[in-house]
């Protein structure tokens, strides 16, 4: 996954740099390449990166489901979460 992410980062930077160069040579032509680079970054690279970073981690501590139960105060929830960590 690391190698795939690095290849996609290089591809995104390549598209953006090529788009800037093409835009300086012939006006308006490079905007397509810059746009493609930004779209790949937003819709391919970011989701893959987020999946890679959070894969296999316990995300239940970031949930707000315990916060909204009746009788719970925010301080009590924070104390319980700190006790779970210890």
Tags for this model:
86 residues; mainly alpha; 2 domains
What does this structure look like?
The protein contains three helices and no strands. The chain is mainly α. The mean pLDDT is 86.
Q: Given the C-alpha coordinates, what overall shape results?
A: elongated
> From the alpha-carbon coordinates, what is the Rg to the nearest angstrom?
22 Å
- Whole-number mean pLDDT: 86
- Low-confidence spans: none
Number of domains: 2
Helix content: 55-70%
What's a quick, concise take on this entry?
70% of the residues lie in helices and 0% in strands. With 86 residues, it is mostly helical.
How do the helices and strands line up, and which of them pair or pack?
Elements: H1 2-25, H2 31-54, H3 74-85
